Amino acid sequence: MIRYFINRLLQAIPVLFGVIIITFILMYVIPGDPVLSMVGERYSEETIQRLREEMHLNDPVPIQFIRYVGNILQGDFGKSFITGEPVIVAIMEKFPNTMMLAIVAMFFAVLIGVTLGMISSISPGSILDRGIMILALAGISAPVFWVGLILVLVVGVMLQWLPPTGFGGVEYIILPALTLGLRSAAYLARLTRSTMLEVLSQDYIRTARSKGLPEWKVFLKHAFPNTLIPVITVIGTDFGSYLSGAVLTESIFGWPGIGRLALEAILKRDFPVIQGTVLFMAVMFVIMNVIVDLLYGVIDPRIRMERSDKQ
Predict the structure, then answer these.
(1) How far is it, in rounded angstroms, from Cα 22 to Cα 145?
(2) How remote is the C-alpha of 271 from its chain's centroid?
(3) What CATH number is associated with residue 128?
(4) Inter-helix orientation angle 127-141/170-200, to 10°
(5) Which of 56, 143, 242, 306 sits at 20 to 30 Å (Cα–Cα) from 65?
(6) How crowded is residue 116: how many other Cβ atoms within 10 Å of its Cβ?
(7) Dihedral angle, C-alpha 225, 228, 229, 232, nearest 10 °
(8) C-alpha to C-alpha distance for 173 and 253, rounded to whole angstroms
(9) Is position 75 within any domain?
């Protein structure tokens, strides 16, 4: 498993290098000048040229790219054009907020999605099953920004049950976490139902029932553990995307996370912050995928044995 883990990390290096290249190129394709964003409306041409020289923006693009990659290898993501703050410091300040939001969102997604999927699989074709699947389809189809705006309007403004926006105590995280986790919950409900129905039709389930085991024990002890592989795949990839910065959710609810930091950097043409946040998001997503791959072997010994044979 250790050798497999090292191999997966080595395979991630080309992916991250590709992210660096694409992000760097996009910075020179998008319209706008970061220097103009810094100086505002009143500026002189001498000031513009001086700032461009200080930020090395007049250097040839290949030289800028080599310098950028070299700095990254040394752990230096550069400094913000707007605030002058090191990018890594800004990211680390926002990351705990995004991590907290991602954990709560995934908790809601797993609790709601897996529970509804298991309930639906108990009586397939029933009115309850069809109702749950209709709700799941609606949850998958609804855009995140639309769900967020509806929750802000109904729960936050009209009913005033929870704060519509802002950052603070537990009450502030519920709406953004529900918004972020709703689509995952809907997908997990459908996935859990279909996987459970497939597992319940297997021979070993019929054998367990023929031995006189209680239905709840057959359901939870024999069937449910065998549904975890696809469920963990969804949890891992979605959680990685949450950590990568929920741009829309954090922007709608005013949540000070990495997603909102990236959006503000894009609006201000703050190239170092954009490049740093995108690279950090990619690293988080790759790490979560590696963790999911390792969990496969922990949950299913057959996968662990297959990997050992390949090694």
Answers:
(1) 26
(2) 22
(3) 1.10.3720.10
(4) 130
(5) 242
(6) 25
(7) -150
(8) 9
(9) no
Instruction: Kindly report, residue by residue over 41-82, the tens digit of the pLDDT.
Output: 666 677 777 777 777 777 787 888 888 888 888 888 888 877
Residue 307 has pLDDT above 70, yes or no: no
Domain range for 162 is 87-310
Residues 6+ apart with CB under 8 A from 152: 164, 165, 175, 252, 253
5 within some domain: no
Number of domains in the chain: 1
**Measured between alpha carbons, how far is 78 from 35 in angstroms, rounded to an integer?**
16
pTM score: 0.81
Once rounded to an integer, what is the mean pLDDT over residues 265-291? 83
Model pLDDT, residue 40: 62
CA–CA distance, 253 with 152 (Å, rounded to integer): 8
| 27 inside domain | no
Residue 69 is assigned to a structural domain of this protein: no
